[in-house]
Amino acid sequence: xxxxxxxxxELLHQRVNSRGVVGLAIAIGPGAEPEAIWMPGSLDExxxxxxxxxxxxxxxxxxxxxxxxxxxxxxxxxxxxFPGVPSSDRISIRQLLNHTGxxxxxxxxxxxxxxxxxxxxxxxxxxxxxxxTFEKGLAFQPxxxxxxxxPGYMLxxxxxxxxxxxxxxxxxxxxxxxxxxxxxxxxxxxISDLSSLAPAPSAVLSLDGRCKDSRLVYHPGWVSPGxxxxxxxxxxxxFGAVLGADFLSKRSLQEMTExxxxxxxxxxxxKPSYGLGxxxxxxxxxxxxxxxxxxxPGYNTSAFHAADLRxxxxxxxxxxxxxxxxxxxQLALAAIDLAHECLGGDR
Length: 347
What we know:
By secondary structure, the chain is an alpha+beta fold. It has one domain (about 1-340): Beta-lactamase (3-Layer(aba) Sandwich). It is built from 11 helices and 13 strands. The protein has helices at about 1-15, 55-70, 95, 110-120, 125-130, 150-165, 170-175, 215, 230-245, 250-255, 325-340; strands spanning about 20-30, 35-40, 50, 185-190, 200, 210-215, 225-230, 260, 275, 280-285, 285-295, 300-310, 310-320. The protein has an 8-stranded antiparallel sheet, with helices on both faces. Strand 9 and strand 10 (about 280-285) form a beta hairpin. Helix 2 crosses helix 7 (about 170-175). It is globular. The relative contact order is 0.19.
């Protein structure tokens, strides 16, 4: 559909206006190859970015694959691996995946943000993340609330590693990236791993607020659950495969899309929900909508899959080297709007 490519280019020019490196990809139809565009257009190849919390969907897919292998059950409790975590006998893997386990986050901790500014190249250890969050107690009793939790996914990462004897990076590569042909998708584990990514100025990596290129100073270990580097087209291919093909079993996909309600609806979300590593809105203007967004120093990302947009599955991903809240999500939802229009729908 040539008209969608033209419309998406115009969208980038209108919304981004040369403020930084941006990539956008869309796939329309079952098994369709993503069409990717980016700015600046002078770049020789599609730029790559840190995906930040989009990695949670990869982690959820990995845990479901391990369940399919018989290595675990999503209703296994943490006491099997982490008996020292408060109420570990009542927190299940499923609850960690959908953020209902009560494990507190570090996103609101002043100590975390001050440490990132003071020493962006020296991340906290697993033990320090634990000491600053769940070792101080739970945010609520397991199953009695919902709150986004990066340390919950840090625990999931460690469980997967202990079960298999392989690193998280190896598991993502062997179980997900390689089978799906995601050749530029990998788990970033050092500052040097960021060298191939788009330049990403950040104002949160210095004490005086001066911008620094995240690629040169930011250690990905500050993202305790693990962080992926990838391109919009490969993230689009991943979501299209996981949500619209046979990558996961039917049972796994059903479990992944069983949602709990999320408080504080963002704009345009009618019934904000969360499945297993998956943001969702079963009542969106485009029908059932699934995906994830992410943000951190230097980068902002968002990917969504509409299962039935006027009879077509549509998957989009926007990734930006721009430190601006929700810019990628706005681009991704605008791209779905354009796809709906091009397919003959009313906006």
